[in-house]
Amino acid sequence: MKLSAAICERARQSRDARFDGRFFIAVVTTRVFCRPTCPVQPPLAKNVRFYSTAAAALAAGFRPCLRCLPELAPGNRMATSGPALVRHALKRIDDGYLDDGTVADLAAELQVTPRHLTRLFEQHVGASPHRVAHTRRLLFAKHLLDESTLSIAEIAYASGFGSLRRFNSVVKATWQRTPGALRRHRAVAGGHESIRLRLGYRPPFDWAGLLDFFAGRAIPGVESVADGCYRRSFRLDGQVGGFSVAPAGGDGHALELHARIPDIRLLPELVTRVRRMFDLDADLLAVASVLGRDPLLSPVMKRHAGIRVPGAWDPFEIAVRAILGQQISVAAARTLASRLVAEFGEALDDAPAQEPDRLFPVPACLADARLESLGVVGTRAEAIRRLAQEVADGRIDFSRPDVASRLVALPGIGDWTAQYIGMRSGHDPDAFPAADLGLLRGAEEGERMTPARLRRRAEDWRPWRAYAAICLWRRYTAMTSGGN
Q: Which cofactor does it need (predicted)?
C-alpha cells in the first residue's frame, strides 16, 4: 500500500496509530522528525516533509523528537515496496550484518556491486545501507537510554558502538545533549541480567489469537504460555538465557519484553528476533487492502482484528518441528517435539523457578540422533538428520534468499515444509503451504478444495498469502469447533 502525501497528511492530522512507523514527519522549522502519533500541536502543512524511514529523515538532517520517541515506532518492513533485493538487504541489516561486515560484503552476498546496492537504497529507502545501520544503532541506544537500567557504557556496547567516546560524540551531534542528559529517568548503573523493554506495534493486535497459536504448539520445558504471557529459553551465539513477552500496561500500543541475557551485546539480535516472532512490524492496512476485499477472508479478519503471522525463535528449530509435523496433527507433532527435547535437549539447572528449563537441541546434536526410538517415522527421522548435518556444516544458511530451494533439494522436505518454514521463520508474507489440510478445509465453500485449486485461488491474495493462511486456519478451527 503506497502512501501518498495526502494520506500522510490525513494520518498526521488525526494522529492515526495505524500509520505509526510507516512514515515520519519532519518539521523544517525545528529540524525535528516525529511519528504520526506525536502529541504536540501539528505544525503547518507548509513546514512539513514526509519520509518513509527514520534513516531517510536523519540523512536529511533532522533529529528524532524527544516527545514522541521515534525509537519506539514499529518497523517499516517495506514488504511491498522496492525490489526483493532491498527487502532482503534490510532484513540482513536488521540482523546486525553491518555491525561487523561491510556494505561490500553485503553486496557480494546479494551478487550485486556496492554501488548498485547503495543506489537502490537511496531510491527506495531514502538513505544508504550505512546510514540505515547507523540509524538502527542510534535509535536502539535511545530506546535503552529511555527504558533500561543499563549504564551508559553498557548501552554504547549493546547498541553496536565501538567505543564510549564514539557513542557520546554521535548522541551529542544528534540531539545536542549528552547521553546522561537524555535519560528520561534516573537509571541504576549496571545490572543487565534482567531487562525490560517496551516493543511497539501498530494497532489493532490480536494478542489472544497469537497466544492461542503458540499455546497449542508450546514444547514443555522450552516454552510455556500461562496467564496471558509467553515464556521461553534460548541459546544465542552460544549464550543461554530466557525471556517473556506480555502486553505492556498503559495506553501505548506495545508488548513488554522481560529478558535474562548474559551478554549485553546480544540484546539487539534478541529484540529483533522477538519482534519478528510476534510480527510486531506487520503492515495491517496493506494486508487489509488486499485480503479485506475477499468474501472468504473478510469475515475472519473482522472477527480477529489485528491478525498476525506467528513467527519462530530459531529457523532450525521450526524446520525440525515442521518435518515432525508432516501429515500428522498439531497435538501429535507437539508430542514428538516434546520427546525430542526431553531426550536430546540441554537441561538448564540454574533456570529460575516457573521458567522454561531446557534448550532445543543444536544441529550437531541431531545430525546422528536415533529419532526412530521416539516414534518418529524413519523417513522423517532421516530428513531431520540430513537437515541437521547440512546446517551444522554450513551448507544451509537460513538467512540466504535461496534457502527454500536448498531445503526442497533435501530428501523428505517438500514444498509444504519449505513454505511453512518460510512463513514461520523466513518472515515471508507471501509464503503459503497450499497442501496443508487445515488450509484446504478452511478454504472450502461447498466444493472439495485441492492444493492446485487453492493455489489458483490464492493468487488474488498476493503478496499477503501468509496472512491468508492464518485466516484459513482460523476459519477451519471455527468450523470444527462449531464457532461462527
A: Zn(2+)
**Each residue of 80-128: pLDDT tens digit?**
456 889 988 999 999 899 988 999 999 999 999 999 999 999 999 999 9
Residue 81: enclosing H or E segment and its boundaries? none
Supply 333's cell numbers. Answer: 507433532
Single-letter amino acid, residue 272: T
How many CB atoms neighbour CB 314 within 10 A? 17
The pLDDT of residue 78 is above 60: no
Element (H, E) at 231: strand 229-236
Domains of the chain: 5-69 (3.40.10.10), 84-182 (1.10.10.60), 193-214+225-265+274-281 (3.30.310.20)
Among 80, 110, 127, 100, residue whose Cα is nearest residue 399: 110
Q: Which residues contact 30 (CB under 8 A, 6 or more apart)?
A: 43
Active-site annotation, residues: 34, 436
Residue that has been written with the C-alpha cell 496443508 in this structure: 436
Provide the 3-class DSSP secondary structure of residue 27. Answer: strand
Put simply, whether the predicted model's pTM sits higher than 0.85 gets the answer yes
